[in-house]
Amino acid sequence: MNTQGFAIGLMAAAIAGQVWGNTDPVAATATDGQDSMETVQVWATRVKSSSVYLGETQIVTRQADHLSELMRDIPGVDIGGTHSVNQRINIRGLDDRNLNITIDGARQNNYLFHHMGNLLVNPDILRSVDVDVGANSVLAGALGGAVRFETKSAADLLQGASFGARAQLGYNTNAASSGSLTAYGKLTDNTDLLGYINQIDRRNFKDGNGTEILGNDGRQMNGLVKFGVDLNPDHRLTLTYDRYDDRGDYTPRPDMGVATNSSISGDVLFDTEFGRQTLNLGYRGALGDAGELVINGYQARYTLWRDEENLYGTGEVEGRADNTGVVLLATQDLHWGLDHALTLGAEWNDYQTEYIEEGAALGAESQDARAIYLQDRLSLTDSVFLTPGVRYDQIRNDSVNGNETYGDWSFALAAEWHLTQGLQLLASSTEVFKAPELTEVLVGAGFGKPANPDLKAEQARNDQIGVQFSRDAILGADQFTAGFNLFRTHIDNAIQYSTRTGDSNVGKVDIDGGELSLVYAVGQFNALFTYARSRSDTHGQTASGTLEREVGDSVGLELAYTLAEWDLVWTSRLIEDEPSQDKPGYDIHNVSLRWQPAAIDGLYLVAGVDNIFNAQYTSHASRVGESNHPRFGHLVLNDYEPGRNVKLTASYSF
């Protein structure tokens, strides 16, 4: 059976049935990505997280040129890595290989090389970021939760106009410059088009001690074309092509600091290209009077190419990772004795990897993953809600470990109790099933790796309790909100992946912790305080007894003051020591000022300073500490963050 053809046909049939089978228009026109968020008023990114409670109407708006600026203030979340090719999302100590990550619905999960990140995301073009901190429903199907990126579209930006454009220039003193051009408009009454191109030129930055961090000199380019068509007032199709290329002279191990790379390979740099191309066909439409259907069909290719002749003598090597798939998600409100909010989903993803050395294909693996899931939010009373969920995953791996099929059911149950207006208690328990991963690509995609045909899938459960509070006109504030939760994640049959000794099940992992958020808003002033704590126990699997990327305890504070023409934002983060892994604590402070001159409509000027006090520090989600390598000896791993960085950005829109 042609699985890919079947999936595409299923997607087309579902769309056609909705477009022609539902002829009653709804009051609101469906637009690309339209939801409870209002039209984007400025060039910014909306950030929403399950670990920050902002009440019913608030949502945080960010303006960022780096993924860490969008997400590091979310409790329970950090971004590891300083290099452009080494951005790693970390949730509660679990990295992006344990998350469900999508861009415009297209799955981005892959594993190219352990010394680099697995994502290429440009925050400048993002409309929104929606983060599920932890596995709290059957929808994500991942151990650590989900991150959903959505890019901007012409429908977001036109605001009643027929055409618009935007130009932006940016300069960072430590040490980068950037520019972007965007044009968008209506082609006909029911079609629109957006074109976007962005370029960032990076040089070797300096850390807080003034040390130049070699191997960062490169260029990143991102281009996006998004075409939208309103099939009728409540059904919309979008076709998106998104390309990201990163090329430069980079160190052999971009996730490690200068000291480690110098100890192992001296001043050797590799000509490196890391790229992504994504093609996405999306549909969003009304489903009856109280429902919605969203379908995405996509193909995402990641490629990593390096010339390793000057160190290893292997010449040009290349790794490829392709994700092709379809995701269907339907929601429907019904009344069968009780009020039901149903969510039904189905997914198919085909993951293909290949390793090429000097033009010869040496290794290749594949994974076919399918899932179907259903959850129902039941209104037992006006104040008590119960949400059961069920999910089935089936994964077929064709890898060095053999042709194996893994499958199992997962169940979830969540409860909400609204004690009074603005006060609610939450509890949930969610099972997660994860099949073994394929081999990382740039070390052979299975070529030469010992096999383990007895490898078992990982089984996990996340238990969580929490409380949320929101009240207007209290404690002198126009609005005050608070959110607090405690969680425990338990993983059985945890897998240790090794290209030298083969993969093996090594036992269990426990992660315990919690997150707290407080929002205080009065007039033009807003304050956000956050706290996160996580403690892991690998039961002897690691030398420290904890997860390698565990962040530990963190405190965040954001103060914002907004007026008609300008706004001022101050952020601070305090990270406590993590002695079990020799991770010293640190505190970082940033400030930014945005000015929109009333005399020049469409002009925005942004000035900011990151790391105001020029601290020397390493994120706990990055490589940090010291180690004794059996081959290279004593190594200082610290991937130091940039020191003080003054940033200036000017943009003009019309």
List keywords for this structure.
4 helices, Maltoporin, Chain A, 654 residues, 32 strands, globular, 22-stranded antiparallel β-barrel, mainly beta, 6-stranded mixed sheet
Instruction: Count the E strands.
Output: 32
Multimerization state: single chain
- The CATH superfamily is TonB-dependent receptor, beta-barrel domain
- CATH-level-2 architecture: Beta Barrel
SS summary, helix count? 4
The major β-sheet equals: 22 strands, antiparallel, barrel
Q: Compute the separation of the termini in Å.
A: 51 Å
Helix content: under 10%
Rg of Cα set: 24 Å
- Summed up, the domain count is 1
User: What does the overall shape look like?
Assistant: globular
Which class of secondary structure composition applies to the elements?
Answer: mainly beta
CATH topology: Maltoporin, Chain A
Would you state the CATH class? Mainly Beta
Tell me about this structure.
With 654 residues, the chain is mainly beta. It has a single domain (3-549, 562-653), classed as Maltoporin, Chain A. Helix content is 6%, strand content 56%. The protein has helices at residues 3-21, 67-71, 154-157, 258-265; strands at residues 45-49, 60-62, 77-80, 88-91, 100-103, 106-107, 126-133, 145-151, 163-172, 176-188, 191-202, 218-232, 235-250, 270-286, 291-307, 316-336, 338-357, 360-379, 384-399, 402-420, 423-434, 458-474, 477-496, 504-522, 525-537, 554-562, 566-575, 586-595, 603-610, 626-629, 633-636, 645-653. The strands form 4 sheets. The protein has a 22-stranded antiparallel beta barrel. It has a 6-stranded mixed beta sheet with strand order 2-1-7-8-5-6. It has a two-stranded antiparallel sheet with strand order 3-4. It is globular, with a radius of gyration of 24 Å.
